[in-house]
Design goal:
This protein has 10 helices and 13 strands. By secondary structure, the protein is of the alpha/beta class. The protein has a 9-stranded mixed β-sheet with strand order 9-10-8-7-6-5-4-1-11, sandwiched between helices. A two-stranded parallel ribbon has the order 2-3. The protein is globular, with a radius of gyration of 19 Å.
Length: 315
């Protein structure tokens, strides 16, 4: 039985106001690249031994966050080398790094390809600066375009772009512009998520204080349909609620979640689902750095990417 591996990187330069995932705003100089990599390797070895996963066929590896693209080349090299020792690696394994355009560079992309990373997922959210500002993003539309172009020039053939709709002031025409530009970038995988107002986030407080207004429900429904029609007419198949891909470019890692396959989560806040049980690693970095790698087993434990929520989850 195949297994997927999710590796959570909790570091971000800034915390987006809509985000309720486990991420911690951290200055670049304070990111513990080597130490965090060593902890991931220790957790990997411990879990492989505890769960009897030695040499299990590995379908995919997904570096999520947080902002994995903040991490240096040595971090990825250390982790992937350990992964290769513990599992049976298929020649066509899918290895993805979530990438913030503000932290992307040609050097990153070249290094990643050299290490065997073959897929990047860009958190673009919008190609229009006013909407990026409303979302609290730390990159511009121009930086997003340049990042995608850099990845393609470096040699990445498998790349994805995430968009968000349901932003204050966004109209169907605005969304149509984003969808068209995303498609024009020539990417084989595109995602479009409705903005979710998660309890406890700054966005939730803005909405409650009437400082942020989403489009009316009828408009949101039309936005869903516009997305499906726009991508569908261009040959991108809708294979999940919010994900579209050319044939053969569906995310194997995402499908592992949606098909209730087994996955091992490494890193602070990461969730695992193996042998019919689900558990989460502690979100407290101090505990994680003390090698507390497990939390209570619970079938309802939150997942970093919430794969079992049925509709329009923001990633």
């Amino acid at each position: 039985m195949t297994l997927s591996l999710y590796i959570h990187v909790p570091y971000c330069l800034e915390k987006c106001p809509y985000c309720d995932f486990h991420s911690i705003a951290t200055p670049k100089r304070e990111i513990a690249h080597a130490e965090y990599a060593d902890l991931l390797v220790s957790q990997l070895r411990a879990e492989v031994g505890r769960l009897g996963l030695d040499q299990r066929p590995l379908l995919s590896v997904f570096f999520g966050g947080g902002t994995p693209s903040l991490m240096n080349e040595k971090f990825f090299e250390t982790v992937l080398r350990a992964v290769a020792k513990e599992f049976s690696i298929a020649k066509d394994i899918e290895i993805t790094v979530e990438t913030n355009p503000a932290t992307a560079s040609k050097e990153n992309f070249r290094n990643w390809l050299h290490l065997g990373i073959n897929r990047v997922s860009f958190g673009v959210q919008s190609f229009q600066d006013p909407f990026l500002k409303k979302l609290g993003r730390n990159h511009s539309a121009e930086e997003a375009i340049l990042a995608i172009q850099s990845a393609k020039e470096a040699g990445f053939q498998n790349a994805s772009c995430d968009l968000i709709f349901g932003i204050e002031g966004q109209t169907l025409k605005c969304l149509e512009k984003d969808l068209g530009l995303a498609y024009s970038m020539g990417l084989p995988h595109l995602s479009a998520y409705q903005l979710t107002v998660e309890p406890g986030t700054p966005l939730a407080s803005w909405v409650a204080a009437k400082k942020f207004f989403q489009p009316e429900e009828e408009i949101l429904v039309q936005m869903h349909q516009l997305t499906a029609d726009t991508f569908g007419s261009r040959g991108l198949k809708r294979y999940e609620i919010s994900n579209y891909a050319l044939p053969g470019f569906e995310s194997r890692h995402n499908l592992q979640y949606w098909r209730y396959g087994e996955y091992l989560g490494l890193g602070s806040g990461a969730v695992s689902c193996v042998g019919g049980k689900r558990w989460r690693t502690t979100r407290k970095l101090k505990e994680y750095f003390a090698k507390n790698f497990q939390q209570e087993e619970n079938s309802k434990t939150e997942h970093s990417h919430k794969p079992f929520e049925p509709l329009y989850t923001l990633r």
